[in-house]
């Protein structure tokens, strides 16, 4: 099979897995839903626009061959490890099929006329049942949030009506991992119409309505911070944010920094590899596709950093989470960037320019204008690319240091409105 044939087969397998209507009938909401499902399965974002190109909704003269990261994401959605794994396994599968087809070809010609009447009956039967199946998939329900924004602790209240949903396998996933209670997902009672959930940790959370493990609807909750929240997280639990690993605030001193002496005095175990993360979620009212960001930081062993010394910045937007990961020299394998659907990883690309200075302050400067992004590190351009999927407004900032590092200030400016957020701590 050629690369084009493999891609077509991959898209057909995705259609089978989704079990929606034929892709030729998909609407904008279907492509948006699929974009979210693929992102959840692979952590790689593919925009609805790109999906339309792949499935032929947007017509092109030539065959559209997407970038490697896009094909990896499609493969991960189908439970393969990457695109190469998909190609390898399906090449051998189709090779066996071709041999079998050649051996059976002569026999098939002899008996095909005998089976024509039977085939006609089978096709008629399938057509009738497909019609019934399509009717069943037209789910009718109500699923709304009374209010989606509030300061933590914040209780999100869902109004729903699932009385016309036939399946009993209906769940609401609040996208929160409780440290002792586990993943917060419930099976709502059809006889009720309200479900409440309290978010105690600031963040931007998708609330998913699922039926038979398929997502029917998504609502998003913005749980606002009162101010910057800082946490100690360990390598095995990088996304664990809770009351017991939150760092008590120090007096403001013009920098966001918690020395190891202070952390030990507050009972944190620093004998394991740990990260210090700082998070702020608010309505910045800044366009995630037209902004300028500047920040100054430092990470080294003298400050309490741990090799490979790094600095990670995440920007949470309404439609995407973007990030950049900078490393010390020699550790570029762990570098990376994601902006929109564009993804680069130090495991597959040479990102030697994504290296930080351990002896002095580092200046990170990001400019996004009309879906073109430029990244400067210490006044040198290290990355430039375009993307299609709109980010929407910025709703959260997160920085991460391996060990402890210093954040001097952060400044974000909307390039259209000049609205500015600046924090010098």
Structural notes for this entry:
- The protein is an alpha+beta fold.
- It folds into three domains: 1-133, no CATH class; 142-224, Sandwich (Immunoglobulin-like); 229-423, Jelly Rolls (Sandwich), CATH 2.60.120.
- 26% of the residues lie in helices and 34% in strands.
- It is built from six helices and 21 strands.
- Helix 1 runs parallel beside helix 4, helix 2 (28-42) packs across helix 3 (48-54) and helix 4 packs across helix 5 (83-137).
- Residues 127-136 have low confidence and may be disordered.
List keywords for this structure.
3 domains; seven-stranded antiparallel beta sheet; Immunoglobulin-like; Jelly Rolls; 34% strand; alpha+beta; single chain; six-stranded antiparallel beta sheet; 425 residues
Provide a concise account of the structure shown.
This protein is of the alpha+beta class. It contains six helices and 21 strands.
Helix-strand layout with pairing:
Blueprint lengths: L2 H16 L9 H15 L5 H7 L13 H10 L5 H55 L4 E4 L3 E3 L2 E8 L8 E9 L3 E5 L7 E6 L3 E9 L2 E11 L4 E6 L25 H6 L8 E8 L8 E9 L11 E8 L3 E7 L8 E4 L2 E4 L16 E8 L2 E6 L2 E7 L7 E9 L3 E9 L5 E4 L2
Parallel strand pairs: 2-8
Antiparallel strand pairs: 1-3, 3-6, 4-5, 4-7, 7-8, 9-10, 10-19, 11-16, 11-20, 12-13, 12-19, 13-14, 14-15, 16-17, 17-18, 20-21
Helix pairs in contact: 1-4, 2-3, 2-4, 4-5
Physical arrangement of strands within the biggest beta sheet: 9-10-19-12-13-14-15
Global morphology: globular
Main beta sheet: strand number and arrangement?
7 strands, antiparallel
Mean pLDDT: 88
CATH class call of the largest domain: Mainly Beta
- Can you count the helices? 6
If you consult CATH, what is the topology of the largest domain?
Jelly Rolls
- Uncertain segments of ≥5 residues (pLDDT<50)? 127-136
* Whole-angstrom Rg: 25 Å
| Classification by helices and strands | alpha+beta
Question: What fraction of residues sit in β-strands?
Answer: 25-35%
* Integer tally of domains: 3
Q: Tell how many strands the DSSP assignment holds.
A: 21
CATH architecture level-2 label of the largest domain: Sandwich
Topology order in helix (H) and strand (E) letters: HHHHHEEEEEEEEEHEEEEEEEEEEEE
Relative helix content: 25-40%
């Amino acid at each position: 099979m050629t690369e084009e044939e493999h891609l077509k087969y991959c898209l057909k397998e995705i259609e089978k897995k989704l079990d929606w209507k034929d892709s030729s009938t998909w609407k904008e909401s279907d492509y948006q839903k699929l974009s979210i499902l693929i992102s959840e399965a692979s952590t790689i974002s593919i925009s609805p626009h790109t999906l339309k190109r792949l499935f032929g909704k947007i017509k092109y003269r030539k065959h559209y061959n997407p970038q490697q990261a896009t094909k990896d994401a499609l493969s991960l959605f189908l439970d393969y490890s990457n695109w190469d794994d998909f190609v390898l396994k399906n090449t051998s599968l189709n090779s066996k099929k071709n041999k079998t087809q050649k051996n059976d070809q002569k026999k098939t010609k002899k008996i095909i006329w005998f089976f024509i009447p039977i085939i006609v009956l089978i096709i008629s039967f399938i057509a009738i049942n497909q019609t019934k199946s399509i009717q069943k998939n037209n789910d009718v329900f109500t699923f709304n949030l009374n209010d989606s924004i509030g300061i933590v602790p914040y209780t999100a209240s869902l109004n729903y009506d699932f009385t016309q949903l036939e399946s009993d396998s209906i769940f609401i996933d609040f996208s929160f991992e409780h440290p002792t209670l586990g993943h917060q997902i419930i099976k709502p009672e059809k006889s009720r119409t309200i479900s409440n959930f309290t978010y105690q940790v600031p963040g931007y959370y998708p609330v998913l309505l699922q039926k038979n493990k398929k997502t029917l609807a998504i609502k998003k909750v913005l749980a606002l911070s009162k101010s910057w929240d800082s946490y100690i997280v360990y390598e095995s639990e990088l996304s664990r944010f809770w009351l017991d690993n939150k760092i008590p605030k120090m007096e403001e001193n013009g920098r966001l920094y918690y020395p190891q002496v202070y952390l030990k005095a507050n009972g944190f175990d620093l004998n394991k590899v740990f990260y210090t993360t700082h998070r702020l979620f608010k309505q910045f009212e800044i366009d995630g596709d037209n902004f300028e960001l500047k920040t100054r930081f430092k990470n080294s062993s003298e400050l309490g950093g741990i090799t490979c010394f790094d600095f990670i910045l995440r920007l949470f937007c309404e439609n995407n989470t973007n990030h950049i990961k900078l490393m010390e020299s020699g550790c570029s394998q762990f570098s990376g960037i994601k902006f929109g659907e564009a993804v680069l990883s130090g495991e597959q690309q040479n990102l030697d320019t994504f290296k930080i200075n351990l002896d002095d302050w580092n200046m990170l400067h990001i400019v996004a204008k009309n879906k073109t992004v430029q990244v400067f590190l210490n006044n040198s351009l290290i990355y430039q690319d375009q993307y299609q999927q709109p980010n929407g407004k910025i709703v959260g900032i997160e920085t991460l240091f391996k060990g402890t590092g210093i954040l001097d200030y952060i400044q974000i400016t909307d390039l259209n409105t000049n609205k500015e957020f600046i924090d010098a701590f």
